[in-house]
Design brief:
With 391 residues, the chain is of the alpha/beta class. It has 2 domains: 6-220, Purple Acid Phosphatase, chain A, domain 2 (4-Layer Sandwich); 246-390, Flavocytochrome C3, Chain A (Flavocytochrome C3, Chain A, domain 2), CATH 1.10.1130.10. The chain has 14 helices and 13 strands. It has helices spanning 13-30, 46-55, 95-99, 113-125, 139-148, 229-244, 247-252, 265-271, 273-280, 287-293, 300-306, 330-334, 352-356, 369-377, and strands at residues 35-36, 60-61, 65-66, 77-82, 85-93, 109-110, 130-136, 154-156, 168-170, 173-176, 184-192, 200-202, 212-220. The strands form 4 sheets. A 6-stranded mixed sheet has the order 4-5-7-8-10-9. The protein has a 3-stranded mixed sheet with strand order 11-13-12, with no helix packed on it. Strand 7 (130-136), helix 5 and strand 8 form a beta-alpha-beta unit. Helix 1 packs antiparallel against helix 6 (229-244) and helix 8 (265-271) packs across helix 9. The longest helix has 18 residues, at 13-30. Bound molecules: heme C (4 copies).
Length: 391
């Protein structure tokens, strides 16, 4: 929920200190009941995770994490009652995944999820009518869990980032997973007749009296789902805080000296007026303005693709409104060019992999290299209208 790249965790700590409370406030607003601790959460710097847990109006659950003294640092489970119907919810994280990582917080131990689940489910079953496991184990291990531990009605999984368009049934357990990064909300509806504890049947299929039915939809959060005004207000406050505290500058770790491999497009323009004119008419020339219009020009999460060489030594320096390195300018595609000046080498070819650094699945789902090159060519009066790559 809090970050996407462990290798950037240290550099991004100033950003996390502002973003994590935003995430928690948003989840509070959305009315979450519980969250499962995943392996990445365990990598967070201590103060950030502790702040998140204490700011949350819902518990962070984990039945199989233990701290150095063998104590569970999180609540193993939660019981909610709805008109006398009692629902037990517990959390599990994969020990294999955690073991493979170096993490900052003390030394956690992660117990075997199957053994832990057996104990917890037995305990929950004594007083609950329904048991839900929140897991960060992956689809394969979710099936293993359902096969080897009796008494789990539903597993809501994570880790494998799989978008399940139909829920899977393993024995008496429904397994569902709604992808990653909050792009979808998984909606699982179950119907249980009194005394119903029989096999699960997808809703709509003919059922026997005692059957329990379910229907599952991963609802995609696209433009047709309107933004909630309370969340928008939180985001606006967040953007302003990022600017006030100059977070982008803090996380970009620029060496302050003038010795930079980047030179800025004013230099390129001196010798390449034709390419520069073409570029000026392309959308890359207003990529930064796009962020300004959205009040996102202080957000490191956006700058990384909407300016040149963000967070690289000598790249765009946040707050400077540097006209040469703001936007996706020449050196974002051709590489740093200070030493080129017509003599030294510079990359002519801009292979697909360079474009894909920004035009990824999330931010540019319709990207096709050749089509997009052609689109850029439309801004041209000859310069790469038919780039050699397409000849
Ligand atoms: C440093 C990041 C970055 C790189 C590298 C990059 N782009 Fe872009 N590109 C963007 C951004 C950001 C936009 C959106 C600009 C805006 O409208 O504000 C964009 C927009 C575009 C558009 C306009 C899309 C439309 O529908 O109008 C095209 C075409 C395009 N890029 C092609 C390419 C191609 C081809 C490459 C590689 C040769 C490439 N880009 C490399 C960031 C990048
Ligand atoms: C991984 C790179 C990447 C990141 C991170 C990124 N963008 Fe973009 N953005 C792009 C690309 C590439 C396009 C062009 C997509 C296309 O047309 O195919 C784009 C397009 C846009 C557009 C549409 C431009 C237009 O005029 O239609 C907006 C608005 C935008 N981005 C805002 C943001 C904001 C706000 C953030 C941060 C929350 C952000 N972007 C983060 C790469 C990125
Ligand atoms: C979105 C990525 C992108 C950006 C930004 C970009 N270029 Fe290019 N440039 C290309 C591609 C792709 C080619 C064609 C490469 C090939 O022929 O394989 C190219 C070709 C060139 C060439 C060779 C032209 C020829 O006729 O052989 C020059 C010179 C050049 N670019 C300069 C610039 C300058 C100067 C800027 C900034 C004003 C710039 N480019 C911005 C992608 C980009
Ligand atoms: C002092 C003038 C000068 C400046 C400044 C300059 N270039 Fe060039 N550039 C040239 C000349 C001349 C060539 C042709 C060299 C050749 O054909 O060997 C060239 C070639 C290129 C090529 C094609 C390389 C190839 O292998 O065919 C690219 C791409 C390019 N420049 C991009 C840039 C970018 C980006 C900048 C700014 C960072 C820039 N240039 C700044 C003069 C300049």
């Amino acid at each position: 929920m809090f970050f996407k790249d462990v290798s950037q965790l240290e550099r991004e700590a100033p950003l996390l200190r502002v973003r994590s409370p935003l995430v928690i406030k948003a989840l509070n607003t959305m009315g979450y009941d519980a969250a499962n601790v995943g392996w990445m959460d365990l990598m967070l710097p201590e103060e950030i995770l502790d702040d998140a847990v204490s700011g949350a109006a819902f518990p962070f659950l984990s039945a199989n994490v233990r701290d150095e003294s063998g104590e569970p640092p999180y609540k193993p489970y939660l019981i909610r009652e709805f008109d006398g119907f009692r629902v037990g919810i517990f959390g599990l994280v994969s020990p294999r995944v955690v073991a493979g990582k170096r993490y900052k917080r003390g030394s956690y131990r992660v117990l075997d999820p199957l053994e832990t689940a057996r104990e917890v489910v037995e305990e929950l079953r004594r007083s609950c009518d329904f048991v839900i496991a929140l897991t960060s184990l992956g689809v394969k291990d979710d099936h293993a869990l359902a096969r080897s531990v009796e008494g789990i009605d539903v597993i809501l999984g994570g880790l494998t980032k799989k978008v399940m368009y139909t829920a899977e049934v393993e024995g008496r357990t429904v397994i569902a997973q709604a992808g990653s990064k909050g792009m979808r909300i998984g909606r699982l509806e179950v119907e249980i007749r009194p005394g119903g504890s029989g096999p699960w049947v997808p809703r709509g299929e003919t059922t026997t009296e005692a059957a329990r039915t379910f229907s599952w939809t991963p609802v995609s959060l696209q433009k047709n789902i309107k933004d909630h005004p309370d969340i928008l207000a939180l985001l606006e406050e967040y953007r302003n805080t990022l600017k006030e505290q100059q977070i982008a500058r803090q996380v970009s770790r620029q060496p302050l000296g003038p010795q930079s491999a980047y030179t800025g497009m004013a230099t390129c323009r001196e010798c390449h007026p034709r390419e520069s004119a073409q570029w000026s008419r392309s959308p890359h020339a207003h990529a930064f303005v796009t962020l300004v219009r959205k009040n996102q020009d202080g957000n490191p999460d956006c700058l990384s693709c909407h300016v040149t060489a963000f967070a690289e030594p000598g790249g765009y320096r946040p707050g400077s409104e540097d006209p040469d390195l703001a936007n996706v300018q020449c050196e974002a595609c051709h590489g740093a060019g200070r030493s080129h000046r017509g003599r030294g080498r510079i990359n002519l070819r801009v292979p697909e992999s360079v474009c894909r650094g920004c035009h990824n699945m999330e931010n540019s789902p319709t990207f096709r290299y050749e089509n997009y090159l052609r689109k850029l060519g439309e801004h041209s009066d000859g310069y790469f209208r038919r780039p050699p790559a397409l000849r």
